[in-house]
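Why this split exists: single-chain examples teach little about how molecules sit against one another. For that reason, every record in the complexes split bundles all components of an assembly together and asks for one structure covering all of them. Below is a record exactly as it appears in the raw files.
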Amino acid sequence: MNISAPVFTLTLIAHSLTQAAEPLLSWNDTAPKKEIISFVEKVTKKESPDFVPIPERIATFDHDGCLWAEQPMYFQALFAFDRIKALAPQHPEWKDKEPYASVLKGDMKKALAGGEKALLDIVMATHGGMTTEEFDKIATDWIKTAKHPTTGKLYSEMVYQPMLELLDYLRKNGFKTFIVSGGGIDFMRPWVEEVYGIPPEQVVGSSIKTEFKMRDGKPVIVRLPKMNFINDKEGKPIGIQSHIGRRPIASFGNSDGDLQMHQWTQAGNGARFSLYVHHTDADREWAYDRDSHIGKLDKGLVEAKEKGWTIVDMKKDWNKVFSFQD
Amino acid sequence: MNISAPVFTLTLIAHSLTQAAEPLLSWNDTAPKKEIISFVEKVTKKESPDFVPIPERIATFDHDGCLWAEQPMYFQALFAFDRIKALAPQHPEWKDKEPYASVLKGDMKKALAGGEKALLDIVMATHGGMTTEEFDKIATDWIKTAKHPTTGKLYSEMVYQPMLELLDYLRKNGFKTFIVSGGGIDFMRPWVEEVYGIPPEQVVGSSIKTEFKMRDGKPVIVRLPKMNFINDKEGKPIGIQSHIGRRPIASFGNSDGDLQMHQWTQAGNGARFSLYVHHTDADREWAYDRDSHIGKLDKGLVEAKEKGWTIVDMKKDWNKVFSFQD
């Protein structure tokens, strides 16, 4: 066979164009990919009985364990620990006071032995007491420089390549993509637009109380060390209603904290799609579900199987997890 | 002079195309229109030193008295009074209990004599106790049928034609338009998309608490008779930060309730634009400002003049107020 140079070049170009147009490249041709594409075609084809107009194509994504990793600990907790260390010189009393003393010694297990109260103390000491602009800068600086404890990668590299492709695929099909996370709304907003293409106004999360004030004649919003709203479990449908005001037609999660979001999504009229990412890949990522303290998936898995929601087996269904892997 | 038919037709077509492309037709060629256009050109021209990228072109609009009228009383209060009448058969005790008894007798002045407490009682009795879906339907039915007490028009016709043109003009220039109102977020959301082209997820407002529940195996969100957040005065920057997470570059209001929103907008870097609609037209609309209980504009007017914000004199600057007027 003899292919002339121009034809060969054209063939190559055509091939790379096809590749670029091919959605969900990091997804294997197993059930989840087929189910995603079939749902999207069903709601976007004008002649389909399940057609959904563009403004109603709302898709909500959990963050920790769904868009980026969450092991060995929620990354925002690691951020808080780093902040405790950075703030310690201004708080000499922390040396002898739990949970701060243990954080400063690097003993995270002991630091968190105090349960929710200890975690709340750490969050309030690190997330409150500054203006919104100051906190923006703190979160941005951290995400640009801090490294994951076991992979040594930037946290913004610890995002799932298949999920980035999925966000992109949905947006190309007229969906508006939202993050709906138990994590802090203001911790995510400064950098998620660059990483996921999701603007701040499409981020829903947990929040602390704030106060509007004049400071030297300039208005500021001060972050108070007091919880305002926890956007998890029953909180997710509430957060969705409060921020979006429309019911999603598609929802994506990985833990029991996302179950009520899936239930709320599924209870609407017309075609619906809910997906659980199941962490099954101890080699490329982590493997955990019903017995994990982080991202526990138990009741959600039972209900997903019962109701026929899509379940992604990371190991089987993704040919790539992180973009830095081969 | 002799113009041939085809040339004449072409001239007419060209003229009507120019007209269609001409923005802000209901605005006279006075200062406010010029200031709006000059600001928009400044932030949208690539080569301008004040150029703002599209995702950051956030514009926030107050609702009552800014996009639609608010006299003789906030329209949502009139909605609440109508609901008291509709619900009265289920509440025989209201006949002898204030403020309900006065509402049922049509004596609004006496009904509101109890001040904020009375108003809150009325709001809670009419806005709480049902699911979000049920309330959606109640608000939608009302907006489709209820008539304004003095003009006899539908409330959705009591919107300012110049402001509709302004919303449209900003969106055509890459702005994302938000409502930021002291009114109830869930009262506005079911119908503002149709009336203003603003989707539910771009509405910020006051809210009551809600609860996620399973009812006969179906998830519902129940509206509780308890205030959650008041999106007025200092609440507006807080609501903006919580819902949008970016500072607006342009803000539009008509009362002292919008002052902090303007201050917050103005305190950002780069070009900024803030506008007050001043109700000066007793013939085509209403004339009121510093002594009004509804939409009081006093401190805001002083600060607007001091800081050089744009002030619309309805009578002088708008050649049309409502689309149903000549």
